[in-house]
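Q: Sequence in, structure out?
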Amino acid sequence: MHKKSVNPALNIAIAVYPHLLITSLTLPIEMLRAGEAYAKGHLSHRDFRPLSINLIAKNNEPIQNRTGLAIVPDCTTHNAPYNDLIIVPGIWRNPRPVVRTNKEVVEWLQESFETGSHIIGVGTGNCLVAEAGLLDGHPATTHWHYAKQFSNDYPLVRLKPDFFITQSERMYTVASLNALADVIVHIISQYYGKAAAQHVERNFSHEVRKPYEDQRYLEGAVDRHPDELIAQIQFWLKTNLASELNLQEVAAQFSLSYRTFTRRFKLATNQSPIEYWQQLRVEGAKELLASSNLTIQEVALEVGYNDQGHLTRVFKKVLSQTPSEYRKVVRRKLFG
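A: Exactly. Output:
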């Protein structure tokens, strides 16, 4: 009898060191485990990959932190396995002493990136990533309080303090815990699919944040593409959600055939116009459901759907819940 083959684990490492912000260690672990648990129950045995999560430090000694909880490393930087993803937690107060005393971690980050690892730097933890030279010439963000110091210490980094998230190749930087949660949801969607990501999002943070794709600064992003006419059309779509025009009429308004319009739009944004407009309308509906007392029918009309039923069908397809269910969850978490 043949034994079932087991897919290789997704190896995830979290760098640990004194004075780390422990929530930036525990939050991603809990979210990733939630995504893994959902996927295990919904993906086929062939598609599911378990997680292997390790804490990596410069040595094996337990690390004390301001919460009083001791962090025990699983591996050192010298014997750590290859990792698909590395998370670099934030640092309490001035990060310079931690960077200065963790050269081994800096070298490990550099070597890991060179061998293919993805890296997420959190807040002032991005100083360790920058110290490794991985952010030179690339966009990055950090905790607002240390933005000026970061800029002085790492002048080759293109600091974007007005963004909570940046992505450059296989490097993500985030400025806050909320932004970290958004990137982890994005990572879960890549590992386990959209349904798993939505499950985790509903349970952790969906009610207070915009989608990852809408708020990041993406180096070379398609939403900063050079097709000025398509950019104008995108702006028109964003500001005319309730328009009765169909996309063929929108294309004609900008003197494009529908075929040329769809081809150029897909090339510029990596999305079809239909997908893009539906995404805008769903996001508009989510904001109105969370922040207004409009009826579901009124929300539908505000975002360009002719009736409540149409909005409900789209909402269930995209978010696996009705507008009413979404509003209940959001209102309970926002105002409860």
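Residues 1-5 have pLDDT under 50 and may be disordered.
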